[in-house]
Amino acid sequence: MNGLNISIFNSLYTVADFVYNLAILSIPIAVSIYSGYEVALNNRSLTQKLSEVETLSIEKQTILADQNETLERQVTERTAALKASQAQLIQSEKLASLVNSPLVSPTRSKTP
Q1: Which whole number is the average pLDDT over 71-100?
Q2: Which residues contact 41 (CB under 8 A, 6 or more apart)?
């Protein structure tokens, strides 16, 4: 009977040892699994946010291109208007100088 008790004791010791080792290892394994899960969630969230940022970037580039075209058109229109005003001003100055010319002005001519 003594041999049977030792055999049962060794068997219980082995089971107890297994349960103890399992308990010791379960905490790091659980932390590793949880950490992996958190990393996967963060990865999924960051991937989604990256996609949103890329979409917004494309939209902003489109808006900027449209605004750039509008500004270029406005610059062209205003430049043409300024050139027309400048030409009109030059023409007015030429006419004014002709009117004030001593050859044309009757008040400035000397009669003998």
Answers
A1: 91
A2: none
